[in-house]
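Entry 14. Two folds queued back to back today. First construct below, sequence then structure tokens.
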Amino acid sequence: MNFRITGLSPEPFQPFYGLGEAELERHGIKRYVVDHAPGFPDRVEMREAVPGETVLLLNHVCQPANSPYRATHAIFVREGASDTYDRVNEIPEVMRARLLSLRAYDDAGMILDADIVDGAEMVPLIERLFAVPGVSYIHAHNARRGCYSGRIDRA
């Protein structure tokens, strides 16, 4: 079973890169200078930001479906992130190093199944969830803080 993991497009976040603190605050966004790693997972390039880089903490609509599971949550985006992570059968380290909640959705945005897994052991769970009839895609969230981590599709 082949799967594809993708990060977010940088386009919606680019207008915020370089804005002053007051303007970011008007948008409900906080800027942080990374002072340790891991701890600031970028959702575009799917990597840990390194000390000295800046990240934006903002609210993101991670499940836009018009269903009871419509959801938003906080995410980090590295300022300047430009290359969307897009790989087949490869789990980025930013996922491998965390406890994840995988949520399997149908085309209408309804959850059909979900489970928690150590990111380094997630391939069997991806396979199990895609075997559920009607599953269209999977969202990964950090299990502890609930932040959206990435999307998984069949490849």
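Second construct, same run, same settings:
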Amino acid sequence: MAQELYSKITDALVEDGYIIIPHAISKELSKNLLSTAKKIKRFKRAGISNASNVHIDSNVRRDKIHWLDYDNGGVQSEFLDLTKGLQQYLNRELFLGLTYYEAHFALYEEDAFYETHLDAFAGSRNRTVTTVYYLNENWEQGDGGELVIYDENNSYLTTVAPHADTLVVFLSDKFPHEVLPTKKKRHSIAGWFRVDKRAGIPLPLEALTSLD
């Protein structure tokens, strides 16, 4: 099943640059990741940055984050093992040279949002492929928190409701996107396949300078 998922993602990245996959992995994994996220006592405010400035700006984004790490065969390890397999598949099929994957739990509390942005700065190939995996059970129309994706010309492409076990994958430097204000707590895992040298997770600056 994992190989089928990897193949589907790879084909879509080549053809369209992005893919949205409902019921992507398993309801059980999504449920267990949500349970883990809800037990986290401390989420950090996410920040924005450019090459010379790191700061918190509540007018741009209001989400909070907690970095994933291997947990001795637990649910975080299960998810990260799946992404490791995808990394290897993308490198083999597309020769992307991905060196590692980083990810964090993202918490959007009521009225939280994130304005339109790209996940990779112009001219930078540090972040190459973005993933977003949603964990929200019983999410209904009107709850807000949708992901809106635009093309390279900033024209509207699609809107994604943050339903549990939905996976979104796209090229980090090609698709501006935003998170609309949410009406209740919204959980997801945002991640990035990178091509730079791994310096450890969480990195002091990256804990503040996440772009999604």
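Quick look at the second one. The chain is about 25% helix and 30% strand. The chain has one domain: 2-50+57-209.
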